[in-house]
Amino acid sequence: MVTVIIYSVCVYFATIGFGLLINLPRKALNMAGIVSLIGWLVFHTVNVHMGGYLAADILGTFTVGILSIFASRYKKMPVIIFNIPALVPLVPGGQAYQVMKCLAIGNYALAKSNLIQVIFIAGGIASGFLFAEFLNQLYLRLKTYLRTKKATR
């Protein structure tokens, strides 16, 4: 439990640090940290209790996507301001490093295995964002349809 708290604090501050690095507006930093923290907690919970990094990445990224949409509406800012920094804890940097290391030392079988993991994780991240945006568009179209239907009565 203590390690999860320590990791959570590190994820929050790493996201804020990355946000400072890419010049996010100051008023978006705290919200980006919160979005990232919740997305990482979903990722961690699914990864630990369900035992799959791919499902964990998809659900974590989906959570980040949905929360970024809500944060952007709350702060009246573009969604990408919250998506990009919140994605940092979910990016497979360790596996990508292992791919390059294995290629450098000539261990091509392990490099291939790690590369496949990186590709699946990247696909999971893309799928999570795609599904979050799909639900957002579905909600907006349904809301518009119901307004027009109500106005024609």
From TrEMBL:
<keyword id="KW-1003">Cell membrane</keyword>
<dbReference type="GO" id="GO:0015744">
    <property type="term" value="P:succinate transport"/>
</dbReference>
<dbReference type="InterPro" id="IPR050539">
    <property type="entry name" value="ThrE_Dicarb/AminoAcid_Exp"/>
</dbReference>
<keyword id="KW-0472">Membrane</keyword>
<keyword id="KW-0997">Cell inner membrane</keyword>
<dbReference type="Pfam" id="PF12821">
    <property type="entry name" value="ThrE_2"/>
</dbReference>
<feature type="transmembrane region" description="Helical">
    <location>
        <begin position="118"/>
        <end position="140"/>
    </location>
</feature>
<feature type="transmembrane region" description="Helical">
    <location>
        <begin position="79"/>
        <end position="98"/>
    </location>
</feature>
<feature type="transmembrane region" description="Helical">
    <location>
        <begin position="29"/>
        <end position="46"/>
    </location>
</feature>
<feature type="transmembrane region" description="Helical">
    <location>
        <begin position="6"/>
        <end position="22"/>
    </location>
</feature>
<dbReference type="GO" id="GO:0005886">
    <property type="term" value="C:plasma membrane"/>
</dbReference>
<dbReference type="InterPro" id="IPR024528">
    <property type="entry name" value="ThrE_2"/>
</dbReference>
<protein>
    <recommendedName>
        <fullName>Threonine/Serine exporter ThrE domain-containing protein</fullName>
    </recommendedName>
</protein>
<feature type="domain" description="Threonine/Serine exporter ThrE">
    <location>
        <begin position="9"/>
        <end position="134"/>
    </location>
</feature>
<keyword id="KW-1133">Transmembrane helix</keyword>
<comment type="similarity">
    <text>Belongs to the ThrE exporter (TC 2.A.79) family.</text>
</comment>
<keyword id="KW-0812">Transmembrane</keyword>
<feature type="transmembrane region" description="Helical">
    <location>
        <begin position="52"/>
        <end position="72"/>
    </location>
</feature>
